[in-house]
């Protein structure tokens, strides 16, 4: 939430005295916090105290009754019984950033962001603006944490960090091409005129300071655009320490105390959440090991080397009743990235795989007529993978894999995870290091979970 406050303070002196000078002084004695900061603290205090958002925002605004509130919101602040008034102004978006940090699932973030808006800005556009900024904070923070301090590509910012936020304004996020210059020197206080511009600025920026400078020097609603951009930029890149320390000098003691309390309780919440997630992941891994079966692994916990398979029978298609992959559930992969199969591996795979215990959930056979491997769920007879092969001098390459999307019902998380699972099955079948292949599957599964959930 500090990013929003800093963006507000830096932009404050340019709200009614706009600038297009990118190299303006960030902090001067004419800088101050505005209604953007006050309302942000109102949301944060509601979270810390578990109070209704309307009550907390109203209370904080009444402490600062002359902070430059807009006309309708001014009436809301000074009302004894404030009610929503159908606004789609950008006030709902400027104050929402604490939500993206406090809650750890997208569903919670979107629901709570909606609640922060509804107490005053209950127009669909006002709610959407709050939700877009909150989910941008949430997703960008997850993206930064997943990179462990490393650089983040623009593609990742677009496809992971801002994808869900952009989709409030452009259903296909890859087609989001807002020209910022069309918004230069235009004062627009609406969510739909502010939030997409903020997202576009983030996509053009290289770091926190760069993003805030771009926002303020656009000559638009400087403090609010600065607050929205600053909040997302903090989640994505963090804040330079000198900027952070300077900004804190503009805040009142009560604000500093709440900021400290918010950070402390957020730390405790995150620690508890991560411990719970780790426990769930361990349970999930055990469940997946059971659901996915063992191939030729000798030990479910992978504590022993993979034994070389000893096959006495050749598996054939007529050994069980097989249901082909339904066309509507079929996904195609033509980019196999796990290398080729050696002649020795193919000799084993051509024998197929016949399950010999309840713990083994796979049946596999090789069709020499069309050079395909077929992996079947032995309990249901449903085909999971059809692997199209092509031989060459060094071995056999995998040209194409047909994937049954119903794999999701037993632990696979999208096509990338499915391909990693297939690699594990092939590796386990041929007596190689299936433990490493299993770890790779879990890595891809976890990455996909982080990317899309």
Give a brief rundown of this model.
This protein is an alpha+beta fold and 453 residues long.
Describe the structure.
There is one protein chain. The protein is α+β, with helices and mostly antiparallel strands and 453 residues long. It folds into two domains: 2-275, ADP-ribosylglycohydrolase fold; 293-452, no CATH class. The chain is built from 18 helices and five strands. Strands 1-5-4-3-2 form a five-stranded antiparallel β-sheet. Strand 4 and strand 5 form a beta hairpin. Helix 1 (2-12) packs across helix 12. The chain is elongated. The two termini are 22 Å apart. Mean pLDDT is 88; it is low at 294-308.
Q: Tell me what portion of residues adopts beta-strand conformation.
A: 5-15%
Task: Name the helix and strand elements from N-terminus to C-terminus, one letter apiece.
Answer: HHHHHHHHHHHHHHHEHEEEEHH
Task: Report, as a whole number of angstroms, the end-to-end distance.
Answer: 22 Å
Radius of gyration: 28 Å
Helix content: 40-55%
- Would you give the CATH topology of the largest domain? ADP-ribosylglycohydrolase fold
How many domains would you count in the coordinates? 2
Name given to the CATH homologous superfamily of the largest domain = ADP-ribosylation/Crystallin J1
| Order of neighbouring strands in the sheet with most strands | 1-5-4-3-2
CATH classification, class level of the largest domain: Mainly Alpha
Uncertain stretches of 5 or more adjacent residues:
294-308
Structural class: alpha+beta
């Amino acid at each position: 939430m500090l990013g929003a406050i800093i963006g507000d303070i830096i932009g404050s002196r340019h709200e009614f005295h706009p600038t297009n000078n990118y190299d303006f002084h960030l902090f001067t004695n004419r800088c101050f916090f505005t209604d953007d900061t006050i309302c942000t603290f109102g949301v944060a205090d509601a979270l810390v105290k578990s109070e209704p958002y309307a009550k907390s925002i109203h209370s904080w605004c009444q402490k600062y009754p002359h902070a430059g509130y807009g006309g309708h919101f001014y009436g809301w602040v000074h009302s004894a019984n404030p009610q929503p008034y159908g606004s789609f102004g950008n006030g709902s978006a400027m104050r929402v950033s604490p939500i993206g940090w406090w809650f750890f699932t997208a569903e919670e973030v979107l629901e709570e962001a909606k609640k922060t808006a509804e107490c005053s800005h209950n127009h669909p556009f006002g709610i959407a603006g709050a939700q877009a900024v909150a989910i941008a904070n949430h997703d960008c923070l997850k993206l930064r944490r997943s990179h462990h301090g490393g650089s983040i590509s623009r593609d990742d910012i677009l496809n992971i960090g801002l994808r869900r936020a952009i989709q409030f304004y452009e259903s296909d996020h890859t087609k989001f091409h807002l020209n910022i210059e069309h918004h230069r020197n235009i004062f627009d206080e609406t969510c739909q005129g502010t939030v997409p511009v903020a997202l576009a600025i983030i996509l053009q920026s290289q770091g926190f300071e760069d993003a805030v400078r771009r926002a303020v020097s656009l000559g638009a609603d400087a403090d609010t655009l600065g607050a929205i951009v600053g909040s997302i930029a903090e989640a994505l890149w963090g804040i330079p320490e000198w900027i952070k320390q300077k900004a804190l000098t503009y805040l009142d003691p009560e604000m500093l105390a709440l900021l400290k309390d918010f950070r402390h309780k957020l730390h405790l919440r995150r620690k508890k959440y991560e411990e719970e997630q780790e426990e769930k992941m361990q349970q999930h891994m055990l469940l997946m090991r059971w659901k996915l079966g063992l191939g030729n692994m000798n030990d479910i916990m992978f504590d022993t080397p993979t034994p070389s398979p000893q096959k006495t029978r050749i598996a054939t298609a007529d050994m069980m009743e097989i249901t082909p992959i339904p066309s509507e559930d079929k996904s195609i992969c033509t980019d196999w990235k796990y290398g080729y199969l050696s002649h020795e591996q193919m000799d084993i795979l051509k024998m197929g795989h016949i399950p010999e215990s309840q713990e083994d959930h796979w049946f596999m056979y090789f069709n020499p007529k069309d050079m395909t491997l077929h992996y079947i769920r032995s309990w249901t007879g449903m085909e999971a993978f059809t692997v199209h092969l092509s031989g060459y001098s060094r071995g056999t390459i995998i040209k194409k894999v047909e994937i049954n999307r119903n794999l999701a019902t037993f632990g696979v998380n999208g096509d990338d995870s499915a391909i990693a699972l297939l690699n594990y099955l092939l590796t386990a079948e041929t007596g190689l290091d299936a433990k490493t292949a299993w770890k790779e599957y879990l890595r891809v599964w976890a990455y996909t979970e982080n990317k899309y959930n």
